[in-house]
Specification:
This protein is α+β, with helices and mostly antiparallel strands. It has 4 helices and 3 strands; from the N terminus they run ααββααβ. It has helices spanning about 1-15, 30-35, 70-75, 85-90; strands at about 45-50, 55-60, 110.
Length: about 110
Amino acid sequence: MAIDKVKQYFRTLGIADRIQEFDVSSATVALAAQALGCAPCRIAKSLSFMVEGKPILVVAAGDARVDNGKYKAQFSAKAKMLSPDETASLIGHEVGGVCPFATNDGVSIFLDVS
């Protein structure tokens, strides 16, 4: 289970106490914002793509959208998100629980300025 991988990863960093789990779903930006009582722009979302045959994650503000022109300028490719099955197998987390921690080896992570 991905949450167990993340907990173990955080334990190695001495920050396992920072993980928050909820009795309600936080699988979408809207649900996470509701669970935390904050605006969606304060939620970080992880978007998964394939670039040059390798999986990447782009972490962005919850209300941010992918700007296709900027994406293409950065990665020299058209933005094409991974399918849910591809995300689970290539990134190591299932859609609705993707985070930039404890990902599979070879996943590059980018932080959007948003």
